[in-house]
Amino acid sequence: RTRPVSTCRGPPLAKASWRGVKEVEPERSGRAASPTAGVIDSQSVKAPAAKKRGYDAGKKVVGRKRHVLTDTLGLLLAINVHPANVQDRDGAEALLREARRSFPFVERIIGDAGYQGQKMEAAVARTGLWELQIVRRRDRHRFVVLPKRWIVERTLAWISRCRRLARDYERHARKAAAFVRLAMIRLMLRSLSTSP
After folding, report:
1. Which residues pair with 83 in a beta bridge?
2. To which H or E segment does residue 66 belong?
3. Which of 41, 81, 137, 163 is the least buried, fewest Cβ under 10 Å from its Cβ?
4. CA distance readout (Å), 135 to 1, 87, 104, 158, 168
5. Is the separation of the CB atoms in 102 and 128 below 8 Å?
6. Alpha helices in 38-110 (DSSP H)
7. What does each of the 196 residues of the chain score in pLDDT, given as a tens digit?
């Protein structure tokens, strides 16, 4: 028996329209369409219906991890979704490969202490010519806003405000990434429509 072919192709369509909207927003702010710096971070979310999921011991979450790379405006450059038991520095290589294909002019990546070490340096060297800058905390016992790190944290908060993305309800990681892109399209279109 042959299986019916679906005519709805959500993830590629979401990716294409996200790239189209992504180019308009920086130009409106007086910046170049292609960014030169990116900020990397990950977010662990519960994923009850996921086909592959893992346990993130740091956050105590069973589910998936969303790796995101944003520009300095907080707009999404690349996303990679994988089981939560994958460490930040191990999961970053696939994200950096995707970002290098889509945004070849990125020169500097800013990350937290989870991205330091020889594995991450090797992954950065394999994926392209960019500089990895680690932002470290100076005081462990009080809350301090770290320079440039708040940009990606704000983007993750924007994503989490969408009801569908508070948890990961998708069975496949590809669809979960598509819903994050759709949420960012919605945010960028709202920003464009309210501007003069």
Report:
1. 64
2. strand 61-70
3. 163
4. 56, 18, 23, 22, 29
5. no
6. 88-102
7. 444 333 344 455 555 565 666 666 666 667 777 788 899 999 999 998 888 989 998 889 999 999 999 998 888 999 999 999 999 888 899 999 999 988 888 999 999 888 988 988 998 889 888 898 888 776 666 666 667 888 898 999 988 888 888 888 888 989 999 999 989 888 888 877 776 5
